[in-house]
Design goal:
With 160 residues, chain A is of the alpha+beta class. Chain A contains 7 helices and 5 strands, in the order ααααβααββββα. The chains are: A alpha+beta (160), B alpha+beta (232). The structure holds FE2/S2 (inorganic) cluster (2 copies).
């Protein structure tokens, strides 16, 4: 993604405002990218700066599934539960991940490492069941291949 | 000026006038729920449907948001419109039977049954309160959150809003907040009690004598005997 904020250091709201010419969704996207969620005080500051009522920003933030108002994990897992993936057993994968990473669906694990979401169709039904790990698609996932994916994820995190 | 046909009548209105405004100006009643003259039209309730065009190529549009155009053919009370309207009211009854506004609409449009699964919703998402708060009160304290079936009206982070001045405008305008009359059929989804009430003046006069809505049964209230017309 081209428009990545430097992940370190405080978030520069003015810079984002200027770069996105005040386009709300793009700014929210920047905030989310930096904090991994939309913190309340940043939204308040944003509302003040662009001169819109707070509720307007909240409305947009709650409308899109992409935005989260709660802290998300460092690694984001998405399991497709769309029709095609569902009939190929994505439900089992969700359970598998839940158990292995100690994270409920739609939530973040207690250590703040992983968050697990279910989505409806990632647009690659032929590859179903589909699991997305940190933006990377894993097609034709089986419980076995899932295990290796998760193992890699866990060990990668240990190395860091 | 644009000229268009409203129920077979050729009329001219200022450019930019909606069908609803034009119809109201010419005295044709179109029921509405989410419309208020003081607020911007929103098109949420669909009750103000009218049929435009000539069948079989006609279609239903919401008159509160549709601006009249040159040569448009509009029918406000065609069979299709009336049926659809009744269906809509029936669905509103199934959603929020506790509202007086909706019960009144049902009686007025002869909706006497509900064939849908009964719910007890407190909000019909007409958006009147949101527009009231933003446009008239200039506060912008409440608004929509979420989407789909989890859409609801709320404040920023569901907390007490700092922008709210407790003006009560949202409650004033809310059609769902108006509790229905507590008649004998209180528990039923559809009350229809006013359907059984004939205005008392009808026994004595051939014509409707006043245009009060609802009928206040004026003679009865003042304790006077209804005056008899001499020829009867
Ligand atoms: S259903 Fe999973 S990608 Fe379409
Ligand atoms: S009054 Fe037109 S849609 Fe509600």
């Amino acid at each position: 993604m081209a428009r990545k904020q430097p992940a370190k250091g405080p978030f520069n709201l003015d810079l984002s405002l200027e770069r996105n010419k005040g386009a709300l969704i793009a700014i929210l996207y920047d905030i989310q990218e930096h904090y991994r969620y939309l913190p309340e005080d940043v939204l308040k500051e944003l509302a003040q700066k662009i001169g819109k009522p707070l509720i307007e920003i909240y409305r947009v933030a709650t409308f899109y599934k992409l935005f989260s108002l709660k802290q998300r994990g460092r690694h984001q897992l998405k399991v497709c539960t769309g029709t095609a993936c569902h009939v190929r057993g994505s439900e089992r994968l969700v359970e598998e991940i839940s158990k292995s990473l100690c994270v409920c669906r739609g939530e973040t694990s207690a250590d703040g490492e992983y968050s697990l979401d279910t989505v409806n169709c990632l647009g690659a039904c032929a590859l179903g069941p589909l699991v997305e790990v940190d933006g990377e698609y894993h097609g034709n996932t089986t419980p076995q291949s899932l295990k290796t994916i998760l193992e890699k994820l866990k060990s990668g995190e240990n190395k860091e | 000026m644009v000229t268009f046909v409203l129920n077979g009548l050729e009329i001219s209105v200022e450019k930019g006038t909606t069908i609803l405004e034009a119809a109201r100006f010419y005295g044709i009643g179109i029921p509405t729920l989410c419309y208020n003259e003081a607020l911007s039209p929103y098109g949420a309730c669909r009750l103000c449907l009218v049929e435009i065009g000539v069948p079989p190529r006609s279609r239903l549009v919401t008159s509160c948001t549709y601006e009249a155009t040159e040569g448009l053919v509009v029918r406000t009370h065609s069979e299709r419109v009336v049926k659809t309207r009744q269906m809509l009211i029936e669905m509103y009854l199934a959603t929020c039977p506790s509202s007086k506004v909706i019960q009144d609409l049902a009686s007025k449009h002869h909706v006497t049954r509900v064939r849908f699964r009964q719910k007890q919703e407190e909000c019909i998402l007409c958006g009147l309160c949101v527009r009231m708060c933003e446009e008239q009160m200039q506060a912008g304290a409440i608004g929509y959150t979420g989407r789909g079936d989890s859409r609801r009206i709320s404040t920023f982070f569901d907390k007490k809003s700092e922008d709210c001045r407790f003006c009560g405008g949202c409650q004033y305008i809310c059609p769902a907040c108006q509790a229905r009359c507590q008649g004998p059929q209180e528990k039923e989804a559809v009350c229809n009690a006013c359907l059984n009430l004939a205005p008392p003046c009808l026994e004595h006069f051939d014509h409707v004598m006043c245009y009060m809505d609802p009928c206040v049964a004026c003679e009865e209230k003042s304790g006077r005997e209804p005056r008899k017309t001499c020829c009867k």
